[in-house]
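Model it.
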Amino acid sequence: MIKVLSHYNFGAEVEEVRPFGNGNINKTYLINTANNQKFILQEINTKVFKKPKDVMRNIELVTNHIRNIHQMNHMDSDNAVLEIFYSIEKESYVKENNRFWRAYKYVNNAITHETTDDPELFQQVGVAIGAFQKFLNDFDPKKLAVTIPDFHHTPKRFEALKKVVEEDRYDRAMRVYEELKFIEDRYELLKVITEALDNEEIPLRVTHNDTKLNNVMIDTSTKKAVCIIDLDTVMPGSILYDFGDAVRIGASEAKEDEIDLTKVKLNLDLFKAFAEGFLFETASILTAKEEELLVDSVWLITMEITIRFLTDYLNNDQYFRIDYPEHNLVRVKAQMQLAKDIEANKIKMKQIVNNILKNKSMSR
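Modeled.
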């Protein structure tokens, strides 16, 4: 750690370095200095991000682009986007003993939330994710490296599931017959976004790809969105992935691993709030096909994580952290139930989106 810190000039002596946050991928530390400045230091998990230099290059390109837009339009650029703190070698990362580190400026007077039942707060999450997309609308996504290939390619996730079922190395496939049938019966619907991208029915965009509620910083005083964080999975993709994943996680009334399936459903008030915030920022850039697929994306991402949890369960739980032997299977059942609830409410959800879009067009 001392060697890593020696690569940075924090402007004053480092008085404290302590673990920070609850992320499952990278190791994160909070740095406090003698002049009361704070910084975030992270060790990049190279088992997940095998090309850390590409990860940091992507983050540099995207954050610089957003910051430049703010400055050109005389907007407040402080905390508008995550800011890399460069090393004394003027690099975005530090390499010590074949381990990669990076530092960020600390976002003051802002916090993240793990869950919420507050529509106004979740609307601000929608605003943040929508603004991220709006500011990157004119950025060429092909400039970005693909750091995790096929991350949201749902049909390929399905093919990976089929392979582990056929191999059945851990004799678990017979226990999940109903779950496998549920997924197989919906296979054709799993292609909706990838086919639209392949056929150029929807544009390739810069996507965050991990739009969890706790990846949006909220100002502690104004309760307004500040910026979106955790940019490691920024890659070319579809805006629909960001919309769908945010709603799946943030608008569910139950935990991702809820055992009592009667509690698992989508909160339509939270869905509406998020959609309002998101579309406030993106209505002017979305194509008609993207608008059409917004609700489908929530279902699709829910199915995708169902497939991933089930694949990991059949692989003897090698990817996702588990707290007990059947944890991944519990996750599968909960996400299946959420997918069923989304199916049952699809018409209502589309009406909500259409009403928001109609109101947006009338107010222009």
